[in-house]
Amino acid sequence: MIDLHWLYVFAGAVFAGFAMGSARDETNPKRWGNAAFWSLLAASLWFGDLIGDIGNGALVMGLVAIAGFHVIGRGSKEFSTPQERQESSSQHGNKLFLPALIIPFTAFVGTLLFTYTPLKGLNLIDPKAVTLVLLGCGVIIALLVGYAWLRPPAMAAVDEGSRLANAIGWAIVLPQMLASLGVIFAAAGVGTAVGAIVGTIIPQGSVFLAVLLYALGMVAFTMIMGNAFAAFPVMAAAIAVPILIHADGGNPAVVGAVGMLSGFCGTLMTPMAANFNIVPAALLELKSQYGVIKVQVATAIPLLIANILILYFAGFR
Amino acid sequence: VIDYWPLLGIALVVVGFALRFNPLLVVAVAGIVTGLLGHMSFLKVLATLGHGFNENRYVTIIWIILPVVGLLERYGLQERAKALIASIRGATAGRLLIVYLAVRQILSALGLTTVAGHAQTVRPLVAPMAIAAAERQHGDLDEETSERVKAMSAATDNVGLFFGEDIFLAIASILLIQSSLASFGIQLTPFQLSVWAIPSAICAFLIHGARLLALDRRLERRK
């Protein structure tokens, strides 16, 4: 059965490729720092299960030291000129989209095949890893098609992949680091402490104020933890179940679903949700690291108000 | 008795991010301080951090897509996306992003969350198309405007994902709500919960769609 470990082997090879590509870029004065950073990630993907928790901790410290003390940089090497890209674009036409669409298409067809056909029963792919395994298959197919059709130089995928990886830089590891921080927060009892504080400030007698506190609590805790998943169990135990559902007789489906979605409004406004807010800023090469968050606030706040109104009017009829 | 000291770790994160230290450094320091305040030994903190990192490796897998995107960019993918949008009459940055918002919400509601995303679609396709459309509306874009159009492309992907995915029954957040409430003896089916994601999804489309139309007006005003 294909599980996540197969994918880790492939992903480790891709990150080793980023290390190799970075080392080849002599326009980057800190290229060995970049090569070391991607090598550590490749090592984590390949050997993470063998080196033990403390070994992994030391590996994380290595990544943090390289990024935190600015030992990584960016080269200026371009492997194609704007004119070459323009010519290639005219020459190949809209067929250029096809290799890019192979990845979503593989995910789409694969998900249907492994959810709704007898293939599901064959246990070819670990059900928990289906989407990521399909992503991996899509990447391999797209690379094969790209090489067969465009006939690029042998190292092109390595060079271009590391060009993009180094444009994003340390932000690539930030979501995984924040997930580990969440593990420490949980182990150190941060959730319990937040729940206790929220529990002491519950207003008496006003359903609307209780709804407001629940929604704003979801937003605040989501912003701190970077995702609404960590916030929901705490807020459910502190307010949703004892006050909104049991004392005030709210509809549990509305309280649960719309409470979670109020938390998602918080996700739009926090740098802790790095993979949604910080990474795309790096990926799109924005000047401001917080550029995506800044434009999202004006959507998130009216949407939060809408969610509070839905909670109040649909939840307490 | 509840120990409030570990909350200091949260304050460290906020201060560190605000002062713009390297985020990896901020997170590592906050993690170690929080652990020590929570009465863990240094080695225990290091092991917890390492364990968490190793267990969450799947978060970083998405980047295996970069060699494909980079390779196609070398052969003019972004230029092609711009040419395509230029050939569609009446295409504007705002309208393009509204269509993308609707598609992203619908695909997410069908459970196809990884079909699109910042690496898969925004960087190679959506952002260059939005920039090309904005240039046609506005002429050359100054840095502030092009940053705004790119940031809006990323924001549209996030809004579409967050306020579409909960309509799908088997998504992690719906299952989490179900199991959290079940632990208090409140039994709900995923269907009862996901139905209540629909009103918020409609509000998200209307609110963010209105902002995208406002982006169009802004682009045309400052010609």
From the helix content, strand content and strand pairing of chain B, which structural class follows? mainly alpha
Number of helices of chain A: 15
Give average pLDDT of chain B, whole number.
Answer: 92
Number of strands of chain B: 0
* Pair with the biggest interface: A-B, 148 and 119 residues
Low-confidence stretches of chain B: none
Largest sheet of chain B: none
Average pLDDT level of chain A: 91
N-to-C span of chain A? 50 Å
What are the low-pLDDT stretches of chain A, counting only 5+ consecutive residues below 50? Answer: none
Q: Would you list the SSEs of chain B in sequence order as H and E?
A: HHHHHHHHHHH
Q: What distance lies between the first and last C-alpha atoms of chain B, to the nearest angstrom?
A: 63 Å
Tell me what portion of residues of chain B adopts beta-strand conformation: under 5%
Strand content of chain A is: under 5%
Helicity of chain B, in percent?
A: over 70%
Let me know the largest β-sheet of chain A. Answer: none
Structure notes:
The complex is a heterodimer of chains A (317) and B (223). Chain A has 317 residues and is mainly α. Helices cover 74% and strands 0% of the residues of chain A. Chain A has 15 helices and no strands. Chain B is mostly helical and 223 residues long. In chain B, helix 1 (8-18) packs antiparallel against helix 2 (23-37). Chain B is globular, with a radius of gyration of 22 Å. Chains A and B meet through helix 1, helix 2, helix 3, helix 4 and helix 5 of A and helix 1, helix 2, helix 3, helix 4 and helix 5 of B.
Features:
heterodimer; A: 317 residues; mainly alpha; 15 helices; globular; B: 223 residues
Topology:
The complex is a heterodimer of chains A (317) and B (223).
Chain A: H1 4-24, H2 31-47, H3 52-68, H4 82-92, H5 97-116, H6 130-150, H7 156-168, H8 174-188, H9 190-200, H10 207-225, H11 228-247, H12 252-267, H13 274-277, H14 279-283, H15 291-315
Helix pairs in contact in A: 1-2, 1-7, 2-3, 5-6, 9-11, 10-11, 10-12, 10-15, 11-12, 12-15
Chain B: H1 8-18, H2 23-37, H3 42-55, H4 66-74, H5 77-86, H6 93-109, H7 118-138, H8 143-165, H9 172-182, H10 190-195, H11 198-221
Helix pairs in contact in B: 1-2, 2-3, 5-7, 6-7, 6-8, 6-11, 7-8, 8-11
